[in-house]
Specification:
Elements lengths: L1 E7 L5 E9 L2 E6 L4 E7 L2 E2 L7 H6 L7 E2 L5 E2 L3 E4 L2 E4 L8 E2 L11 E5 L3 E8 L10 E10 L2 E10 L3 E2 L3 E2 L16 E4 L1 E4 L26 E2 L12 E6 L4 E4 L2 E10 L3 E7 L3 E5 L23 E5 L11 E2 L5 E11 L1
Antiparallel strand pairs: 1-2, 2-3, 3-4, 4-5, 6-16, 7-10, 8-9, 11-12, 12-13, 13-14, 14-27, 15-26, 17-19, 17-22, 18-20, 20-24, 21-22, 22-23, 23-27, 24-25
Length: about 325
């Protein structure tokens, strides 16, 4: 087992990194944000991150972190529950993105740690970032070979919305270049159409005949350009294959291949946000003074759907258990 001090917050709290080791792979997890700092497979570091805690504090792209209490965008930074309107932080052009200063900004406690598994917890207090009720959250990372499980559990002490995800940025060739030549398959027959502020407009069109058709493999950048700068959309999943991984039956939802490595994604969620770094490029350098570049990484954030809580989805009663599992499995091409 390997644990090391990564840095100290202005508050004086110490932040640590814990290492998980698999066959030909390792993962580093940071206690701030329960963040994936590294995911190294066959010597290639495939996840975006930074050399110092200070850089994480400056960054606004949520690199590798757990996102909550509600992931993705909430329209107009507000929602209504049982006739009461709740106001959230406006941090995205009038909307609330990723819960405001959410779970990625918080210090998590490690309650279990082995060479292959770490369990972290965080208690989100009633009223934090405008969300009602206190929420006890537990996230488990487990590495088997080069497959990484993220397992979520959250239990509220009163009714509240819950929609968690992880915001890892992947480049299967290693950070520094674009992912436009990565070849992607996403098992989704519809996507969530959005307005100019990336808020769902109520339509879920078929992907057929659109740039969103990844039912057969395509290069990620093949249909980008002009007015369409790239993907930042939820795909409504239509998987047909299940797999038993980490003792769970999960849907096989996506595969992305770089020059030598492939990433397969399995989950129990109904959607996945496919984002290809449309806003990367102006942020701090990645590890080793590696410059951020436009389309320099992709995210596959398993989830419910953007703005779900303004459509009556994602609310949990007192004591009701939220669960969510995803596996990112890496193999040689």
């Amino acid at each position: 087992m390997e644990k090391r001090l990564f840095g100290t917050l202005p508050s004086g709290e110490e932040i640590y990194i814990y290492k998980l080791t698999g066959d030909g792979a390792y993962v580093n997890i940071m206690t701030r944000g329960a963040t994936i700092v590294n995911f190294v497979v066959n010597g290639v570091d495939i996840v975006g991150g930074f050399d110092s805690l200070e850089t994480y504090l400056k960054d606004t792209s949520h690199q590798g972190a757990i996102i909550g209490r509600v992931a993705n965008r909430v329209a107009n930074a507000r929602f209504t529950m049982d006739g009461v309107e709740y106001t959230l932080p406006d941090n995205d052009h009038g909307n609330c993105l990723h819960g405001g200063d959410g779970f990625d900004h918080r210090v998590w406690q490690v309650v279990e740690y082995t060479d292959t598994k770490i369990v972290l917890t965080y208690t989100s207090q009633d009223g934090e970032e405008g969300f009602p009720s206190t929420l006890a959250v537990k996230v488990t990372y487990e590495l088997s070979g080069s497959a990484l499980l993220i397992d979520y559990e959250a239990i509220p002490d009163g009714k509240t919305p819950i929609a968690l995800t992880n915001h890892a940025y992947f480049n299967l060739d290693g950070l520094g270049g674009t992912i436009e030549d990565h070849v992607a398959t996403i098992y989704a027959d519809r996507y969530t159409d959005v307005d100019g502020k990336l808020i769902p407009n109520g339509n879920r069109p078929s992907v057929v005949g659109t740039p969103f058709d990844f039912l057969t493999p395509h290069k990620i950048g093949e249909r980008c350009g002009g007015d369409f700068i790239g993907y930042d959309h939820n795909f409504v999943l239509s998987p047909t294959v299940k797999a038993e991984l980490f003792g769970k039956s999960l849907d096989y939802i996506a595969k992305v291949c770089g020059k030598e490595l492939c990433l397969e994604v399995y989950t129990d969620q109904p959607g996945v946000q496919f984002y290809i770094g449309n806003f990367l490029g102006d942020g701090p350098d990645f590890r080793g003074n590696t410059k951020q570049v436009f389309h320099g990484a992709f995210c596959l954030e398993t989830q419910t759907e953007p703005d779900c809580i303004n459509h009556g989805i994602g609310f949990y009663e007192k004591g009701e258990v939220y669960t969510h599992s995803v596996v990112y499995k890496v193999s040689k091409l």
